[in-house]
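so my prof wants the structure for this chain in the tokens format not the other one, which i didnt know existed until like an hour ago. anyway here's the sequence
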Amino acid sequence: MTHATAPARSPGTRKQLAVDDRGGIYELKKRIAQGGQGIVCPTQDARYLVKVSRFAQGDPRAQDWLRRIAAVQRMPIEENLLPIAMPVALITQPRPGYVMELMDGLGPMEDMLRQAQQQQEEGYIATGGLERRLRLLARLARVLAKLHGLGIAHGDLSPGNVFISNSIAHDQIWLIDCDNLTYAVRNSELQIYTPDYGAPEVFRGDRGISTYTDIWSFAVMAFQMLTLLHPFKSGQQVDQDSELEAAAFRGDIPWVDHDGDERNRALVGIPRDSVCTPALRALFRCCFQGGLIDPECRPGMAQWAEVLEAAVARVVRCEHVEAGCGHAFVWSSAQQCPFCGHSPTDANPVVVMDHLVYVHCALLGEDARPEDQWTRTGHVQVIGASPVPIRRSPPGAATYVDSQQFARVWIRDGSLIVEVDKGAELTLQVGKTLQSLRGQVALERRGARLALHLGPLEKPHGVWRLTW
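here's what i got, hopefully its the right format
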């Protein structure tokens, strides 16, 4: 680690400095997060954040906190390649704390959420739109699923503790505030949360942080990111009487999209079916209704990841440039943009590919019929003007993220473009005709039934089928 050095002082200015146990000196900038344990500040070096305790050096609470940080340093985070900003040095002055290192070019997710809430439609698009939100949330869900698989809870998830790429072209995720990490599959003694994101059982003081409270906090963040609404605060009942917020956080008031109780229905926000698939809406309903009462009813993070990745595959961007739309939305049977009403044209078409598993007839029994070679998986991929990856596993499958990429597919100038990855084996089938594809291929639209076979034809493999 390269130690930061104190900058030169200008006359009349007062700099807040922190010193670590290795002699590094950090200039603390304006705080970006604050919790029950301490405050988080950026430094003059964008790679480092410093968290300092709210309590003085000799305070027993500060010493307990330092012991917890020492325990966190022994957790298997780095060896599992988890993007969590771990302590790299301990702060000794002016108060106890620690230094954490981040990748360059990251900022808190809270900034993205705030810009969209302040600027509404313009801010939503400027911060990457729907597709980027789904990608970021899917990546975060994968990280949390892996963390929970180790029996570790983050403990204090909030948009201020999740750092993302500043550039909308990238989807990097890093978690900070690692001092709340705890081995707690079901419960713990720690009752820490960020206002608006604490699970009801923690808010009531019934239980401590756990993987289940992480799931709750994630679901609140995800709903906010996608709809610009808090699932409880943004409802009509709470919005009209702010004193009911505490009751909502305790679980005494229904969430804004409750399917059997309309007392707290939201009258504003982005329409859910424009930004959430039916499967994603079902997860929110499961978490905020059944999971409100019983934490174990909350969907696990792996399930969230799979549903979010499947949602990304259903997103298209409106190409109605003349109307200045630019929105991305979840493709549906309505076949038009819900924001401007524009429908795809021959110049800018949209096509849906179905995923199947193909098994060669030689591997089936003698009584097998030709149609038995094809099995639908229920996964789909919507193709428009933006290139989408085609992997061995379809989006929505547990192995999707780690599976081999075969190609990228998109529509350009009325042709279906298939760009095959180097070394990938991809075969185009039209009727009974088979053609091995290499490099970039443009397929003209003929209304024919096409199949893209991924891998050797004699082995069971995935197939994407479409009409083009």
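also thought this was worth mentioning. Confidence is low (pLDDT under 50) at residues 1-12.
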